[in-house]
């Protein structure tokens, strides 16, 4: 990781290209990108330096055309819907993505700036009403995606069979590291094989496939006066809408998942066999998250425990054709 003096330089150089003079800067975190809260005399912004915490992570997320496409969807959501999102800002060159070159190393960094939105992340279990709101929110995002005319050169990663297979393979080194047992990995393989077969029957239609958030977990939406506001669209891409649903359901207690579906169906219809499809994507979403964390030593303990749970609680039931969505956490 670079020294913070270098990030000081990048921050100032980037903000100069927006004509923004910072009064105060607060470090927020570093995962897929480095994030700062920027305060001026008039307002607050979110500044992102698009560099992953792990060099092992796929750098596709940090290509300028991919970052720009995320910002185009955010701008469209801000313009077209009542959903409150972080509005992206163009720089003085009328570009969504700002390039900064560090003089000494000649390394290139890409940055983006978004308007700040108020709200809080709740660290408590979601109530049925909050789960209902989350379902309604995700349905609104999908409804917009379904109707939105994609801009030219819109480029985002694809959550398809190839990506899921790559996520499974990314976990394999954890077997030799003794983080995952060979037996549990075999169970994961069997589950993925069954899910791949299921995906093969779905096809890609306007109603089941489009641009999805792909990471709407409990830390990626804010509560503001009982209104839910989605944030962090950095993992958005093309995928099945029910994969997006499953990705969010991972973080909800099974007792409130039915409320999520009730909220979702206010805006969008679900297919007749939506529970079965969602359970397959639930397994894939878990594996995708695990593959994201496998190169972070701080996540290894949690990763090992999660794999054991998935291999013992979820996949065996799924392989037997028995439902787990409303019973297993």
Automatic annotation (TrEMBL):
It comes from the Bacteria. Pfam families: APH. One of its GO terms (molecular function) is homoserine kinase activity. Residues 35-266 form the Aminoglycoside phosphotransferase domain. Belongs to the pseudomonas-type ThrB family. GO terms for biological process: threonine biosynthetic process. InterPro entries: Aminoglycoside_PTrfase (IPR002575), Kinase-like_dom_sf (IPR011009), Pseudomonas-type_ThrB (IPR050249). This is Phosphotransferase.
